[in-house]
Amino acid sequence: MGRKSRLAGTVGVAAIALVGAWEGLRLVAYKDVVGVPTVCYGETYGVKMGDRHTKAECDAMLLASLKKHERGMRKCLKNPDAIPPKSYVTFVSLTYNIGVGAFCRSTARKRLNSGDYKGACNAATWFNKAGGRTIKGLVNRRTAEHRMCLEGLK
């Protein structure tokens, strides 16, 4: 159950569109709001200042990273395939943004595992800080994700 990916077809397209839109595309490495070298659609792993990538490389990196984060997310969920597609996409986006460890320790994960999907959508909005301060871009992202997450429950 925990190994399967749902990032194919429309679910995969939706995840790439959502994450790509919020992360933005930068082909040359830059420092994010807390000073971490970042490139492409928010990739930080192994990134050094001065790194450069093509859009095609960034697209491939995003898909691979989304799948990696999805695998980690699924490992700490009891029944990931029961989560409606739009809600599922928002939790993949959240996991990509905050990391697998933070997601697996989160109230959102606990609520998903208890079947409280609306409560999980609400708890996901709490991740709006970086470096200890509220970031307007994260508030906006979580608001949009929340709207999509709840749409999935109708």
UniProtKB/TrEMBL annotation:
Keywords: Antimicrobial, Bacteriolytic enzyme, Glycosidase, Hydrolase. It comes from the Bacteria. The keyword Hydrolase applies. Its EC number is 3.2.1.17. It catalyses: Hydrolysis of (1->4)-beta-linkages between N-acetylmuramic acid and N-acetyl-D-glucosamine residues in a peptidoglycan and between N-acetyl-D-glucosamine residues in chitodextrins. InterPro entries: Bacteriophage_GH24, Endolysin_T4_type, Glyco_hydro_24, Lysozyme-like_dom_sf, Lysozyme_dom_sf, SAR_endolysin-like. It is an enzyme of class 3 (hydrolase). Belongs to the glycosyl hydrolase 24 family. This is Lysozyme. It comes from Roseibium porphyridii.
